[in-house]
Structures are given as C-alpha cells and as structure tokens.
Amino acid sequence: MKTLDRYILKSFLVPFLATFFIILFVLVMQALWLAFDNFAGKGISIGIILKFLWYTTLIVAPQALPIGVLLSSIMTLGSLSENYEFAAAKSAGVSLQRMVRPIVFLAIFLSGINFLFLNYVYPYAMLKQLNMKVNIKKKQPAIALVAGSFNTEIPNFQIKFKEKYGEDDNLLKEVMIYDLSSKKGNNKIITAKSGEILSEEGSRYMTLVLKDGYYFEHHLKNGASFKEREKMPASYADFEKYTINIDISSFSNDDLEEEKYKTNYNMLSLAQLKDTLPTLKQSYDAFVHSRAKNLFLSIDVEDLHQYPDSLINKDLSLNILENFELKEKRSILSVATSKLERTINNNKSNKDTLKNKRKYLNLYDIEFYNRVAFSLSCLLLFFIGAPLGSIIRKGGMGLPMILAIGIYVLYFFSNTFGRNLAEESSLTAITGSWLSVFLMLPLAITLTVRATKDKGLFDINSFFAPIRNSVKNLFSKKRKPQHNDNTNSN
C-alpha cells in the first residue's frame, strides 16, 4: 500500500470510528429510554438488562454504520480541502479520483459488512430481543395489559379498559372483565368506572381493586340445553369497591430467554424469507379465490342464461319488473334488497381481513428487498458525503455534522415513507424498498460530477452568465447604428 493510500485511510478511519461509536451509543440509549418502564422496579436482573442492551446494539448497528460513513466522509474530505492538501496533490498530478480510491474500496467493504450483518446478525438479535420483551411482559402481567382491546395474556380472565395512567401505570379507567374461571364461557361479567393494579415482587397473586361498578353472573348447569339456559337464574349487583385476586404463579416459571416466536419477518434471513414468501402468497391467493367464489355464489350468477332470439317471448317487457304483479314486484325487490345488503355486509367484514392479510404479506416482501437496498446505504451516502466535503472545504464537527444529519434524515425519511406506502400496497415492495436509493442517487451523481470538475455547490455565475450575455448583446446592437452614422458624416 502506498503512503498516500495509508494517509487517506487513516484520515478517514479515525473520525469514522469515533462517529460510529458515538452514534451507536446514542441509538442504544434511545432504545433503552423507550424500554425503561419495562425494567425499572420490575425485578429484572442486571444480566437480563445487559443482554437486552447487547441485542439492541446489534439491531441498531446497521443504522449507525451509514451515518458514520456519511459524517466521516464529509469531515475527511472537507479537512483535506480546507488544509489545501487536495490542491497540493493536484499540483503533483494526483487527481481527486486517485486520492479517494482507497476510501471507495473501504465503503464497498463496509456495505458488504452491513449486508452480512443485516442478513445474519440482525435477524438473530431481533428474535432474541422480541422474545425477551414478551417474556418480561409475562413475568409482570401488569405491563402486558394494553388499553383499548381485550387482554387475554392472564389465564381465566379477559380484561379490557379505556386508559392506563398514574405514576406506575397501575390505574385503569372504564374497566370490563370477563371471568372465565368457571369454564362455562362469558357468564360472569364485571364492569367498573375505575380500577387499580396492586402487585408485589415475588407474589403469586396480582390484586385488582375495582371501584364504582356492576357485577353480573348467569348461573348455568353443566350439560344444560340452550332452552334450559334461558330459564336459569342470573345474579346482578352494583358495588363501590370490589377486589379480585388473580393467580399469576404460572408466569413466574417462564424463562426470560425462551424462544416462542421465530417466524416474524424481521427474524428471518434472506434465504428463509425467500422460502417463506411463496407459501404466504399461495395462502393469500387461496383466501382471495375463496372470497371471490363466495361472492359469485351469493349473487346467483350461475342461474343467468343466454337464450337464442327465437326462444325469447316477444310479449315480455325488457323491464323485468313490468312483467309481474304489484305483490310479486314487492317480493322480488325485497329478496333482491336483502341479498344485496347481505353481500355488502359480507364484503365489508372481509375487507379488513383481506387488508390485514395483504399487509402481513407485504411486510415479508418489503423486508426481503429492503435488506439489499439498505446495505447499499454506506456506498450511496459515501458518494454524497465525499464530494460534498471536497466542495464545502470545511472539516471538523460543525458544518459537516449539520449536513450529515440533514442528508441522513432525508434518506431515512424517504426509506420509511417508501416502506409505509409499500406496506399499504400503494407501491410495489421493490419500489417502496428502493425509493430512497432512487431519490438520493441523482444527488450523489451530481455532487460527484461537480467535485470531479472542481466546481462549487452552486455555480451562480453559470446561472447568470446567459442573462448577462444577452443584455450585452442587446445594448451592443443598439449602439452600432450610431457609430455608422458618425462615420458617414465625416
């Protein structure tokens, strides 16, 4: 390796390692802050928290790598230009392309590392972290309770509430509970305007204190028929305070590192995604086919036949209803209306199911293409940062930091925007995953060309030059006739 290559690589690697680890630390701390409520005061050991942080580090590392490449490339090339080292190299016959060649190879190498990380390490870390989150919630059932929907994690109970609030998130508003402990269905229902969760570390019970509510229980006998159940008595009462002790001893035996979820889209490698996608698409196509077949059968299309003209009764009106009496018309319209309403309701009920299935399939499809697209972000952002640094001719952490953050926010926003559009089927999976590359690639090419030709970021003179030349030509044409008249008079 030549001395120049070693010097350029050293100038790049020093800020790259510094910025990479700083950004990695910031992203890990951000993730820890978001998950802090799940650990604080919940009896989780330091070892589990450290493992959680380790998995988080592996997950956010592919995001920190392109930011580090972008920022260090701007800083390195900006510092070399600011110190006139580029000018000295050019005077010695060394072009810009030759100087940045070792960094280009390093950027390609880092893109390969990022791809391997996204394909093997990232899925493993996601698998471990997600299962750990689920097991931690099961360790502390109060954490797992989510507002707005029925929570079924706690055995023998289904709990729903409107809002969870308070310093410890243990106060509930508008609570509804289905007590299933009798194994006879939803026969015991409890509602309350407010509630409070009380649980002690190591206790096998979670106490739920309800206030200002109602209690209903339908007393059923085993083996009773449906008609007999309607005649059986029921209990109803209101209360100011009602306490329920829920046995959660089954949760305390769970291993926090037990792996129950292994097939999520972000837990699979590219090879596994490639094998999973055909099965998911086949299942989705079968669902669409079955819904279409049901719709076809519900509207009785198979009963419609085309008759030859010779068999058509000329006395019948083309308006079908005109061929029936008023009573028959009402009967026909009533049946048609009921069938139409039934078909519309079925379509509405199937719409959300179809949308969710398509969204679930899109997530796997997007993840497959995004792994490749995002791994190229190191190379793409380098070809933005390196020419930008040589153009602005400013090193250090000031202006380069601002430019790097702005460019990465634009890249990350376009990537997220494309993925969201593809998730909702507004774009294809490959287009949504590569949208950020399509948007940022012209910028990279433009900056690289301008830096190679030693032009500024904005060449104002080249913009105003045509206007200035046209004005000069206009005035020169006006002056020429006066000069000719004076010559003739002399």
Automatic annotation (TrEMBL):
The keyword Nucleotidyltransferase does not apply. InterPro entries: LptG/LptF_permease. It comes from Tenacibaculum singaporense. GO terms for biological process: lipopolysaccharide transport. The keyword Magnesium does not apply. The chain crosses the membrane at residues 12-33, 53-78, 99-122, 368-388, 395-414, 426-449. Signal peptide: none annotated. Keywords: Cell membrane, Membrane, Transmembrane, Transmembrane helix. It is found in: Cell membrane. This is YjgP/YjgQ family permease. GO terms for cellular component: ATP-binding cassette (ABC) transporter complex. It is a multi-pass membrane protein. Its main location: membrane.
